[in-house]
Amino acid sequence: MRKGVNHTDVKNTNRGIILQLIASGRDYSRAAIASKIHLSKMTVTNIVNELIEERYVCESQIEENTNIGRNPVQLDIAPDAPKVIGIYLSRDAVHCILTEITGKILYHQFTSLCEETANSLTQKIIKLIQDAASVTTDTILGIGVSSIGPLDAEKGVILKPTNFFHISDYSIKAILEDCFQMPVFVNNDMNASALAEKLFGMCMDTKNFVYLGISNGIGSGIISDGKLFQNKSGFVGEIGHMGIYYDGALCSCGRRGCLEAYINMPVILEKLRLASNNPALTCSDFVTVAKQESCHAVFQDMAEKLSYAIINACNMMDPQIIILGHEGYYLPDSYIEYIQQEVNAKILAASHKYISIRKSSFAMKTPIIGSACCLLNEFFAGNFFTSNHPKSSR
């Protein structure tokens, strides 16, 4: 016997979709939502009215309408709608944000990390969350965590990051759920950044794209057919460990010839500092030093190797857009244009496809905003409207 449709699940899914559209800030009315997601006006009206009653949504200004009839009413996320806490865990700092459902940051604080233990790290994270929660009287939906990897996203366990104070098997999801009694969703910082671009950035209408983050290593977050592509092992998107030289330079993973052994920010900065004779050079100086002939070879080598890796990735995944983020955001525009030309000249689909290479929408804040998106992605999927979901709390 064929199983029937669970109408509650369908309704919860529709509620999440409608909330996501309203949270996008694109001035949706009830009629516009009905047209966008192919639901009846009555169904959308009923759901929106429920969301208004539950103080997720409010009506705002009247849209001007030159046609005969009532002007459509624009919908917004209510000012007192529930908020989200995000934690971004990097190798040298913990960032904490409080955001609206729209992804707008209301509060941002961070603390540096130095010679941490699992216990001291936990205490710093808890203090940051407590401080963030204290600045609002609104309900908090839960906590999203974006972190360096590798990690088990389903279990919320940070496995064994390199150069991270020898901390391993760190069960951040269980720790925070036990402490705050609210739902916690965890993902690696590359996936979280891809979600930020999908929910609130340049790729809201893009079904297939890759976020390519360059920092101490190189990783990627992949959106395929509108959804995050990942598995339980946490090792999807490790583009930095794509081999580009047989028996090449030793990588931190123990293998030789990985892209990451040649293209990572510590290596690039060291080369540029030598080339520019500026030992204090940082990523924010890239545009300035790119004008120096002595630095051109460093940037060109980086662009060529990135092009090679992106071409291979495009042949396998067929993305519409490649987003360069994390410290990769600072790569000068002229070299991004070079990468774009190389990629579109050499991919297998070059005769009938064009791939855009762009910088991240949120500069260096992408993985920070992405932390909240780890939770909001579940919220917009309708998973917070089921009766057995852990309740959010103050």
TrEMBL record:
Its biological purpose: Transcriptional repressor of xylose-utilizing enzymes.
Entry similarity comment: Belongs to the ROK (NagC/XylR) family.
Protein's UniProt name: Making large colonies protein
Keywords for this protein: Carbohydrate metabolism, Xylose metabolism
Single GO BP term: D-xylose metabolic process
Lineage, opening ranks: Bacteria, Bacillati, Bacillota, Clostridia, Lachnospirales
Pfam family, one: ROK
Signal peptide: none
Family annotation (PANTHER family): BIFUNCTIONAL UDP-N-ACETYLGLUCOSAMINE 2-EPIMERASE_N-ACETYLMANNOSAMINE KINASE, ROK (REPRESSOR, ORF, KINASE) FAMILY
Domain of life: Bacteria
SUPFAM superfamilies: Actin-like ATPase domain (SSF53067), Winged helix' DNA-binding domain (SSF46785)
Transmembrane feature ranges: none
